[in-house]
Design goal:
RNA-binding; 18 strands; BirA Bifunctional Protein, domain 2; alpha+beta; Helix Hairpins; about 425 residues
Amino acid sequence: MIDPVLLRENPDLLKRSQEARGASAEVVDSALAADTERRTTISAFEALRAEQNQFSKKVASAPTEEKKQLVAEAQALAARVKAASALATEAEERFTTVVRTIANPILDGVPAGGEDKFVTLRTHGETPTFDFEARDHLELGELLGAIDMARGAKVSGTRFYFLKGIGARLEIALMNMALDRAIAAGFTPMITPTLVRPEIMDGTGFLGEHADEIYYLPADDLYLTGTSEVALAGYHSDEILDLSAEPLRYAGWSTCYRREAGSGGKDTRGIIRVHQFNKLEMFTYVLPTDAEAEHDRLVAMQEDMLQSLGLSYRVIDVAAGDLGSSAARKFDIEAWVPTQDAYRELTSTSNCTTYQARRLGIRYRTESGKTAPVATLNGTLATTRWIAALLETHQNADGSVTVPEALRPYLGGLELLEPIQ
RNA sequence: GGAGACGUCGCAUAGUCCGGCCUAGUGCACCACCCUGCUAAGGUGGAGUACCCUAACGGGUACCGAGGGUUCAAAUCCCUCCGUCUCCGCCA
């Protein structure tokens, strides 16, 4: 949720942000009107309620013979209080509904416009070339006995798969490598719940325009999470944190579930876009003033991982129109996937500033002793999808794949993945 | 799945049967000051969260796990939900 003070004091900033996102700017005016209405009705109710409280004491201490008369008067007053209360509640709800449709105001420098308006901040590594016909990651995965899509579909349907043999080991190796680096950087490892309550899913901002992306279990009223960000954001909900010494940093290891509802026909081959995968996610709670520095820090860790794995990539500043409602800025890192002749997203790291924390009631104490919402950030440190870029980038003519040096310790020293007979 | 107990101001507790002097008491911890020249001391005062009004001083409203209801009035009575614990059943 946005800062209501910002709404009152600088609505134009919010309108500009909404426009850059390609979203409605009129909702800002609606929210302002709803805010005025809300405050008027609350004041009216509270004045009446104060009167009723006073009157109640009078009734309590009155002699028996006067009570009857006083109670009659009190009944009339109670009716008025009830009506005023209903008005205030309605106005409050209207305000909340409108204000929550306003997205997190984007940070300075975020490119305006739709998905294709991203800005490339930097690229790293030569795009690999081969003196043989390159195989795509699925072909390689099948040769290596690492990926079995057909049986995944048989058991669970399209976009499901088995990672088998070296494929399974590869994923665990990647995840462990990421986990070790996160721990070295001061992150606390977490294995998180993947089913969450509605209020947590809603608090993280995923039940808005992306609601149809999410698996829901009606029998239990629980949502399957598409990232451990959800559980890690909910972890400290309704708490007052002490971040004076340093940020709280968590590395969440979880299976992620996504319906991929709007992506019919896209990336149907292989493990690029699947309903279930594993991810190691970094999540930090930080003082608002340190959020942008933390954002850079997360990106640096991601780049270190990708460089260690010998992948070519570019870092992009995602355009405003392609940001989720919670993110004020998002940096994606896209690795080169040779057979697609394209960069594909391997990591995504968002600065949600205070937006998510305000919805979830996560605060810190300022120097004056007041509470204020913290900032939250999240970013990928490894996922199943990385296997695709890894296999394709390091493939050899015979279908074998060279293991990048940094990953070898996590595979018992294995240097080469070889096709099975 | 069945039966039962419980959820109160940071922690620990009182209050709930029998609604109104609960503006929620007490202890510990905490903060400030005083006292005492010292390490478990004593005294006084303060202190929660959110929202509303106000230029400010200050005032008001709500919150006793959450949400409804009854009532002039709810921590207290009723309903639903959530959570914790105990026992039984079932189970990968």
